[in-house]
Amino acid sequence: MLTALALLPITAPAASAAGARHVLLISVDGMHQADLVAYAAGHPNSAMAGLLARGTAYRSASTPVPSDSFPGLIGQLTGGDPAATGIYYDATYNHRLLPAGTTDCSGARPGATVNLTEDLDRDQSRLDAGQGLTGLPDSVLSMTGTPQTLLNPAGLPVDPRTCRPVLPHEYLKVDTVFEVARRAGLRTAWSDKHPAYEILNGPSGGGIQDLFTPEINSTAPADTGDWTSDNAATQQYDAYKAQAVLNEIDGFDHSGTHRVGTPAIFGLNFQSVSTAQKLPLSGGRPGGYLPGGTAPGPVLTSALDFVDTRIGAFVTELRRRHLDRTTAIILSAKHGQSPTDPGALTRVDDGKLLDGLNAAWKAAHPGAGDLVVQATDDDAMLLWLADRSPAATDFAKRYLLAQNGTGTDRDGAPKAFTDSGLRQVYAGADAARYFGVRPGDDRVPDLFGVVQYGVVYTGGKKKIAEHGGVAPDDRAVPLVVSGPGIGRRTISAPVATTQIAPTILRQLGLEPRSLQAVRIEGTQVLPGLG
């Protein structure tokens, strides 16, 4: 339930300074600010160039840290960093909750993995996450708008106070823009990549009336892997979500079958750019960027063109429905991707590093179990430890910074690494201070490792970039706001993507401080919009 802090009076929406009645939020996952600038310059008649020509662009926008999808999007929709939201990644650990599947909570030992990924689906192999639709994939628009019904409760951590599974929305500490809009009587919708994104409903559980979440990690047609294994498949997947948004612009629910009115807050994420940045090859063509790391290669070029075409369709449909003068469009990204320079890539097998760390700990502490209880490593290292004492966290830090070895480059050739690929390590109380929470916080990583530029933790050769870290490639994302009453300008002062949340409410004539995280962190509306 929402706390009293969240229940500030919400008046009915008045006409905002900008006159917006709808806000369409678009996240192009993986996209960098430099990508947007270069694309618009090379495609002056493109939809993205049009947003820049008509709107306010923020040249120095940064995502939260860690730069993962969950904290990135949740920051955009709550106004808070992980310290306020409690969300550090999609797969984390909580030292207070009980393990998934616990049914007898009396005397159960606390400590649980919190896995808010595709693993929660009733059936991960299906695009509908186990709903049982016939005619997939093209029937996926008939998927439910309440995907919390598609989650497997047995995969959720258990609250020791109630001995009941904790749903994703219950795990979020603060309310969302969707909840504020709902309290003001406005309609809400969103489209994303897993049913676990029901976390965006917020603590009330009812923030989003129409949440469309086809499972991206399900089996794609012709058993070619999941929808991220080939960029053409990712584009096909994204096209379903884009059609859902078009249906919503037209006043229907995501399926296009029930007339409900155009939402006040709605939008989607695109995965196509992210896949194109990660894949070494797709369709026989190289993924990522060309040597030097500035110009997109052929797969990434195709993905950018695809996204631009879909954004153009949104703009055209808004104009056709005479909604363009009352709709603000916000273009950004949950996260960037690193490294852009293919020559900088060093793949490091984190599994071997962690096996070594656990073995060293047990050798030094006979009878002890593994030290690492949860590791989430992409292009940052987040570790949660069974022993949280200063001695244990320091042991982990010293061990990792003493490990040198051999990884691989983009082509799979051997490439040396030092210090486990890490540039800096925050452990124990230092990690808590880094994230701005109290030492001993139930959720904060016990160790956060900042990688040397170009390091990606993977034991294979299937990806050439990742996110989650602190490099500019991870965090420097586009941010453009275009719509009624918004002038064309470029703002160079640093801003955060968490400022999107209060800006959405301001555009709709709602009070930005209605959001808990905005009040906790003092998050400001984006400058220069009125």
Structure, explained:
The chain is of the alpha/beta class and 530 residues long. The protein folds into 2 domains: 389 residues, Alkaline Phosphatase, subunit A; 112 residues, no CATH class. The chain is 27% helix and 18% strand. A 6-stranded mixed sheet has the order 10-1-13-23-2-24, with helices on both faces. It has a 4-stranded antiparallel sheet with strand order 15-16-20-19. It has a 3-stranded mixed sheet with strand order 22-3-25. Strand 6 and strand 7 form a beta hairpin. Helix 10 packs across helix 11. The chain is globular. The two termini are 35 Å apart. The N terminus is likely disordered.
Give the arrangement of secondary structure elements:
Elements lengths: L21 E7 L4 H10 L4 H8 L1 E3 L2 E2 L6 H10 L3 H4 L5 E4 L17 E4 L42 E2 L4 E2 L2 H4 L5 H7 L5 E3 L18 E3 L18 H19 L15 E6 L1 H7 L2 E2 L2 E2 L11 H23 L6 E6 L13 E3 L1 H15 L7 E6 L2 E6 L4 H11 L4 E4 L5 E4 L4 E6 L1 H7 L11 E5 L3 E3 L14 H4 E2 L2 E3 L6 E3 L3 E2 L3 H8 L8 H6 L9
Parallel strand pairs: 1-10, 1-13, 2-24, 3-25, 8-9, 14-21
Antiparallel strand pairs: 2-23, 3-22, 4-5, 6-7, 11-12, 13-23, 15-16, 16-20, 17-18, 19-20
